[in-house]
Design brief:
The protein contains one helix and three strands. It is extended and about 45 Å long. By secondary structure, the chain is α+β, with helices and mostly antiparallel strands. The chain starts with 10 loop residues before the first strand and ends in a 25-residue tail after the last strand. The chain has a three-stranded mixed sheet, covered by helices on one side. The chain has a domain of 43 residues. The longest helix is centred in the middle third of the chain and has 13 residues. 17% of the residues lie in helices and 18% in strands. Strand 1 and strand 2 form a beta hairpin.
């Protein structure tokens, strides 16, 4: 992560032509998953990989909030 200044993981959300969510892919994924999902969207067919979790690292983020209690992961209040 530090070598490439990465601060997140890939998260793809596949939308149909009307903007409706059809599937989610998280993490490193094979090219085939992306290609087959894109082809299905173009053809108006169900995604072959509607929910796919690829490989991810074992890196654990440090506790920068000092244990602050918040149910909103986007809250940056200390």
């Amino acid at each position: 992560m530090s070598e490439y200044d990465v601060d997140g993981i890939p998260h793809f959300v596949f939308l149909d032509k009307d903007g409706r969510k059809q599937g989610t892919v998280i993490g490193r994924l094979p090219k085939e998953v992306l290609a087959r999902n894109a082809a299905a969207l173009l053809a108006g067919q169900p995604l072959p990989f509607q929910k796919y979790a690829g490989a991810s690292s074992g890196v654990v983020a440090p506790d920068v909030g000092g244990g602050a209690a918040s149910s909103d992961p986007r809250a940056h209040a200390w």
